[in-house]
Write a structure and sequence with these properties.
Elements (H helix, E strand, L loop, with lengths): L1 H24 L7 H26 L5 H26 L14 H22 L5
Helix pairs in contact: 1-2, 2-3, 3-4
């Protein structure tokens, strides 16, 4: 599971850098400042959670079950949250109206919050080793 988590975190981080560069250079010419800021929010949260996965993959104190739960929450959270933000921010560039999927953005955000909550509960439930 650790290798899968680390690999996914690395891939999400690479994609975040690619999308960030794409937004800063190619999209800068075709999107408004507000749309670019929205796109950048998706990139930022994707990178935060790529780093989160790397952290989780390197932790030895978490059970594999907990790691799997965190992995699934983060992966689907990033797909729904950042993915929908990318589509919504670039909505004017396509003939399809992505505004109909706007309701999935907060669902993705909730999954990301739940991942952090699961980690917090695990930390609080750990027996002190001091």
């Amino acid at each position: 599971m650790d290798k899968k988590i680390l690999t996914t975190g690395t891939i999400l981080g690479m994609i975040a850098i690619i999308f960030g560069a794409f937004g800063a250079h190619a999209l800068k010419k075709v999107l408004s400042i507000e749309q670019l800021n929205t796109f950048e929010t998706g990139v930022r949260y994707q990178m935060y959670h790529a780093l989160f996965l790397l952290f989780i993959g390197l932790l030895k104190d978490l059970s594999q079950k907990t790691k799997k739960t965190l992995y699934n929450l983060v992966l689907f959270g990033v797909i729904l949250f950042s993915g929908s933000i990318y589509l919504l921010a670039t909505n004017t560039l396509t003939s399809f109206d992505f505004s109909i999927i706007g309701f999935i953005t907060p669902i993705g955000g909730l999954l990301l919050i739940l991942a952090w909550g699961v980690l917090l509960i695990n930390i609080l439930n750990k027996k002190s080793q001091i």
